[in-house]
Amino acid sequence: MRNLKALVSVAMIAISMTGVAATKSNAVKRNTKKDREPAVGMENPASVYCTKNGGKSIIVKGKGGEYGVCQLKDGTAVEEWEYYRENNKDENKEPEKIIGTPNPASVFCEKHGGKSINVKDKNGNETGKCQFKDGTKVDEWNYYRENN
């Protein structure tokens, strides 16, 4: 019985050591140079624009840190973002403003003979009021909810 316990103990130790060795071996294999390099996100749009238009993107170290310079085909060098903003007008254009749906309480007010106005309260917050021809003013949303 004593020999059986000793045999089982030795077997357990051997299995444990094999597992540890295999784990360490896999860890060493995974720890390659590629795995240690930081993950890279989206490319710098100014650098991409520079190279896409025949320039060469160069990183320059200055007093404030590193910045990108675009070396053009003719040899001139321009800060990448400056080059991007100056020459990429179509992509830099502001999107057209989309007009949303009108405030239903304001529409309801005007549909029923009132005029929709914005009034500031004592704290400077704006609220919508419905002003009627006789001069009375009511909260637009309350008027809308009570009569709709």
Brief synopsis:
The protein is an alpha+beta fold and 148 residues long. Helix content is 47%, strand content 22%.
List keywords for this structure.
single chain; 148 residues; alpha+beta; three-stranded antiparallel β-sheet
Give the rounded overall mean pLDDT. Answer: 81
**Rg measurement, Å:** 36 Å
Fraction of residues in β-strands? 15-25%
Number of strands: 6
Shape: flat
Spell the H/E element sequence: HHHEEEHHHEEEH
What gap, in angstroms, lies between the N and C termini? 91 Å
- Largest beta sheet: strand ordering: 1-2-3
Segments where pLDDT lies below 50 for 5+ residues?
none
The percentage helix is 40-55%
Q: Helix tally? A: 7
Largest sheet: number of strands, sense, barrel closure = 3 strands, antiparallel
SS content category: alpha+beta
Description:
This protein has 148 residues and is α+β, with helices and mostly antiparallel strands. Among the domains are: 45-90, no CATH class; 105-147, no CATH class. It is built from seven helices and six strands. The protein has helices at 2-30, 33-36, 45-52, 80-87, 89-92, 104-111, 140-147, and strands spanning 56-62, 65-71, 77-79, 115-120, 126-131, 137-139. The chain has a three-stranded antiparallel β-sheet. A three-stranded antiparallel β-sheet has the order 4-5-6. Strand 5 and strand 6 (137-139) form a beta hairpin. Helix 3 packs across helix 4 and helix 6 (104-111) crosses helix 7. The longest helix has 29 residues, at 2-30. The mean pLDDT is 81.
